[in-house]
């Protein structure tokens, strides 16, 4: 098995000591030939894998966070509007060792969040060739693996990125502080997002002048430190996209709706309040988002700039990934089931 490991040295938890500890774990897989390359600038991972096929490598191993995964996915699959979309069997499969701040994609697949533990689990999967196909999302002419959306979440990510550029770490507390500031601003001048969506079964969804709307390809949609944030409980890598929105940011109902987005009320004690303002739609095949004025848009935790229109689609079985046997998200599995599968792989 030929594996290309692409490492992002600027990833949150990555350092030379960790790299030296992880590398022997992967190299210990029998019959595996490993080549390592480092990224040097944003978009470099995408350039590295662009146009690759199984004739080049069997597996691309991302040693980084969701941003690195996003670049590799876009490099392997190419532009969304390409005339011939590659088959999952024609391009290298994807494997991930998490070293980012959130690591939503790999954790939603069922991996541990710590790089050493994830590397041990991945090594067993590589040895036994345990892989599966996953749905991915597209926005305009690009791909996303985790989530994408207009409004509050995009503003939060843009401001956290600016804080990181100044040397501050992206901690859960910082996310909460920035989220509250963004919420206060959005109450005064809220985005007005028009949403149209169609599910894979033909059901439709329509909402106008929504101040917050995003689409997720995973469940949980993100993590607040160790805690999973679930907005669309039925969502998974085996069906279409989940939509979550808040219809009005004002008043206690609006505040609770936004807090629900960031993981507050995990026991659902405030369901009657959140249901009054939150919008849900499941298994979406196509989504159109439109704003009368340009607003920030994010995909896989990266700010993509400002747009007025975004077309989003769900692509079934777009990519092969090395992942645990049970396809359900970690948030839907009991501790006993997680331990059972971990022991089985070990």
TrEMBL record:
Recorded hits in Gene3D superfamilies, A to Z, give:
2.60.200.40, Probable inorganic polyphosphate/atp-NAD kinase, domain 1
The text of the family note is: Belongs to the diacylglycerol/lipid kinase family.
Supply the enzyme class, top level: transferase
Which species is listed as the source? Answer: Corynebacterium minutissimum
Q: Describe the location of the DAGKc domain by residue ranges.
A: 1-140
Report the superkingdom from the record: Bacteria
> Which Pfam family is one of those matched by this entry?
DAGK_cat
> Taxonomically, what lineage is the organism?
Bacteria, Bacillati, Actinomycetota, Actinomycetes, Mycobacteriales
Keyword list (alphabetical) reads:
Kinase, Transferase
Give the matching SMART domains.
DAGKc
Report what the protein is called.
Answer: Lipid kinase
Q: Which Enzyme Commission number(s) are listed?
A: 2.7.1.-, 2.7.1.107
Q: Which GO terms describe its molecular function?
A: ATP-dependent diacylglycerol kinase activity
- GO CC terms, sorted: plasma membrane
InterPro entries, per database record: ATP-NAD_kinase_N, Diacylglycerol_kinase_cat_dom, Lipid_Phosphate_FormReg, NAD/diacylglycerol_kinase_sf
Keyword Hydrolase included in the entry's annotation: no
PROSITE patterns cross-referenced by the UniProt entry: DAGK
Q: Name any cofactors this protein relies on.
A: Mg(2+)
């Amino acid at each position: 098995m030929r594996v290309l490991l692409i490492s992002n040295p600027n990833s949150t938890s990555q350092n030379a000591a960790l790299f030296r500890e992880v590398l022997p774990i992967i190299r210990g897989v029998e019959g595996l030939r490993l080549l390592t390359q480092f990224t040097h600038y944003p978009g470099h991972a995408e350039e590295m894998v662009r146009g690759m096929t199984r004739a080049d490598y069997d597996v691309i191993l991302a040693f980084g966070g969701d941003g690195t995964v996003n670049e590799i996915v876009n490099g392997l699959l190419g532009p969304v509007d390409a005339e011939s979309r590659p088959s999952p069997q024609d391009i290298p499969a994807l494997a991930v060792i998490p070293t980012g701040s959130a690591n939503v994609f790999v954790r939603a697949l069922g991996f541990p969040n710590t790089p050493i533990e994830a590397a041990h689990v991945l090594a067993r999967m590589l040895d036994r060739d345990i892989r599966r196909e996953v749905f991915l999302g597209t926005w305009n002419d690009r791909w996303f693996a985790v989530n994408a959306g207009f409004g509050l979440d995009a503003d939060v990510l843009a401001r956290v990125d600016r804080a990181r550029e100044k040397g501050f770490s992206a901690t859960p507390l910082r996310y909460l502080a920035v989220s509250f500031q963004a919420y206060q601003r959005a109450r005064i001048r809220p985005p007005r997002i028009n949403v149209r969506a169609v599910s894979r079964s033909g059901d439709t969804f329509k909402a106008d002048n929504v101040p917050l709307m995003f689409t997720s390809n995973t469940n949980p949609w993100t993590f607040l430190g160790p805690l999973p944030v679930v907005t669309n409980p039925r969502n998974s890598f085996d069906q279409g996209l989940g939509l979550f929105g808040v219809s009005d940011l004002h008043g206690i109902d609006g505040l609770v709706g936004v807090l629900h987005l960031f993981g507050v009320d995990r026991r659902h004690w405030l369901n009657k309040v959140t249901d009054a303002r939150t919008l849900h739609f499941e298994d979406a095949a196509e989504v159109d988002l439109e704003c009368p004025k340009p607003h920030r848009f994010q995909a896989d935790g990266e700010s993509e700039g400002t747009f007025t229109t975004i077309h989003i689609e769900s692509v079934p079985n777009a990519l092969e990934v090395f992942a645990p046997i049970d396809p359900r998200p970690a948030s839907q599995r009991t501790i006993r089931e997680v331990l059972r599968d971990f022991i089985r792989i070990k």
